[in-house]
Protein: Acid phosphatase
Amino acid sequence: MFSGHFVLVLLFSGLLSGVFSQSFIRIWSGNRNSENLDLISSDRKILRDDNLYCESWRFTVETNDAGLWEEVPKRCVKFVQDYMTGNGYGSDSELVSEDSSSFAATVNISGDGKDAWVFDIDETLLSNLPYYKLHGFGSELFNETTFDEWVDLAKAPALPESLRLYKELLRLGFKVFLLTGRGEAQRNVTEKNLLFSGYRNWERLILRGPSDVGKLAEVYKSEKRSDVEAEGYRIHGSSGDQWSDLLGFALAKRSFKLPNPMYYIA
Ligand SMILES: *[C@@H]1O[C@H](CO)[C@@H](O)[C@H](O)[C@H]1NC(C)=O
Ligand SMILES: *[C@@H]1O[C@H](CO)[C@@H](O)[C@H](O)[C@H]1NC(C)=O
Ligand SMILES: *[C@@H]1O[C@H](CO)[C@@H](O)[C@H](O)[C@H]1NC(C)=O
Ligand SMILES: [Mg+2]
Structure:
């Protein structure tokens, strides 16, 4: 599905003469995940410096400029590892959490019990970092068997910044909906894990039922939000580490993207 083509076009316009002259310069077109970037333009610093390149790569995946991407580029595995296990991930999560709280504080809670916030679970409320530490930080192809074994352990820790936000939202009077791509078969272990890591008093846990199997996450999640809205809830905020948590229809008034440079779910 990933076409892998990225074309950067610069447009120069002739301004002085009043003649509209333009030339298109194709800097580069090719698979961005390929390892031959520096062959194409060895004089450009970004392509030689892994750290600089990976900072820019991370920008493009977090903003969704990159669209669907399938694995962490080989040259960025160490970068992602350092980000996830160092201070970067926590710091970014902290600021996202603070922005979310600031917005939540501006919402007028009506008192009818219909003011809602939607959370994704994996890499939003719960961290699967202990799993990904053993599986290349997203550089290995996703293995459903081993991942499900990890989920069944119900030992994923909370993202501390999300747990803090979650408690704050409950305190403010929001109803919290948990909307996950996990399936109904994982309901019990998911509840067990949420309780294990400190989450309490959610309004509803929504998982993929039989009729949701095979749907794109963006469609499935939009439909479920739409159902919640049809019950009269006002979805003020939505938190997720994937753009498919935050795009589509029946959108929250504000959506908050948490960092995740390890994987992309369409
Ligand atoms: C909340 O209510 C106050 C007082 O009615 C009003 O001034 C304010 O604009 C409202 N805020 C929002 C976000 O609707
Ligand atoms: C997933 O991991 C298991 C256990 O290591 C292995 O047997 C299986 O072949 C892997 N599946 C894929 C699709 O890689
Ligand atoms: C989940 O737990 C309930 C009771 O706690 C049990 O009846 C049900 O069979 C369990 N479901 C699964 C899929 O294990
Ligand atoms: Mg997630």
